[in-house]
Design goal:
Layout lengths: L7 H10 L1 H11 L16 H16 L6 E5 L5 H10 L2 E6 L2 H13 L6 E5 L13 E7 L8 H11 E14 L8 H14 L6 H10 L2 E8 L1 H28 L4 H18 L3 E10 L2
Pfam families: Methyltransf_11
Keywords: Methyltransferase, Transferase
GO biological process, one term: methylation
Length: 288
């Protein structure tokens, strides 16, 4: 993929190919989350930390039973199902992978919230399946990092939100204090971006884009300290699985996509430790 562009089909193919790796992780953790867990004194295990990230974002968004929530980049539906179960909210989940959408529907059925959830194939840059003024909250849990044009994504969020609606996102961004990147850092960042189908940008630019798109009451919260243990766990796994994967890749057992993802997750933790990458929660309101 080019440095600035993201192809929808290529991104979907990456995550469809990584599903086998993620399914093993899901079996171990007991949930289908793909996102980073937020650790604190009350949430010390991977599963509960992943649920904690959803709880924190949900509280920040003020989600209630009366809300219709649009979950962009819904993945296997864990956060959609969580909001339906925890709050009784109606949730529309959109994603660009049919495989993940089917897992999301299965997840909703297994947790008896199929009637509260609706999973659709849609690109959050287009939202062709969502009408104007149709939702109360646009929610993205590590979704916007998969956008190379966040202004377009936010314009679509604005279109589908009712007046006074809210957006709530968590994601990884370049930190304000990161400074100019060395050539080695740029190459490493490019490897992360291409391996995971993402485009990591500065949090300051995202803050500005929210305001220029017409959102007010913008709040940006740095959550990096809480997810350090999660990125470290991924790095530890990657340092074991990566070398083994490279051997198995030559035998056709593990794909180069999986090996590249291992390397990317290891690099992310290095950047987090060095203060280059941070994890942020952003909320904002659409002017009435």
């Amino acid at each position: 993929m080019a440095d600035d562009a993201l192809d929808t089909d290529e991104v979907a193919a990456i995550y469809d190919e990584l599903l086998q790796t993620y399914k093993k992780q899901w079996d171990h953790q007991g949930h289908r989350s793909l996102h980073l867990g937020y650790y604190d004194d009350d949430h010390t295990e991977p599963g509960s930390a992943a649920m904690n990230t959803m709880r924190i974002l949900s509280n920040a968004a003020g989600i209630t039973e009366s809300d219709t929530v649009l979950n962009i980049g819904c993945g296997a539906g864990e956060d959609s199902v969580w909001n339906a179960r925890a709050h009784g909210a109606t949730v529309i989940g959109v994603n660009i992978s049919e495989q993940q959408l089917e897992l999301a529907r299965e997840n909703a059925r297994n947790h008896d919230v199929a009637e509260l959830t609706d999973f659709r194939y849609d690109d959050f840059h287009e939202l062709s399946t969502v009408e104007d003024d149709a939702v109360d909250v646009v929610w993205g849990l590590e979704a916007l990092s998969h956008s190379h044009d966040r202004a377009v994504a936010l314009e679509q969020a604005r279109r589908v939100l009712e007046a006074g609606g809210r957006v709530a996102f968590t994601d990884i961004f370049l930190r304000p204090g990161a400074g100019s990147l060395s050539e080695d850092d740029k190459r490493q960042l490019a490897q992360i971006n291409d391996a995971l189908g993402i485009r990591i940008g500065p949090i300051s630019a995202f803050d500005e884009t929210l305001e220029s798109t017409g959102f007010t009451e913008v709040s940006i919260r740095n959550m990096t300290d809480g997810i350090r243990k999660s990125t470290k766990r991924r790095q530890q796994f990657s340092k074991v699985a990566g070398p083994v994967g490279k051997v198995l890749d030559t035998l056709g057992t593990v794909s180069s996509t999986q090996v590249d993802a291992f390397d990317a997750h290891s690099s992310i933790h290095d950047f987090v430790e060095r203060g280059v990458i941070g994890y942020y929660l952003a909320t904002a309101t659409l002017s009435a």
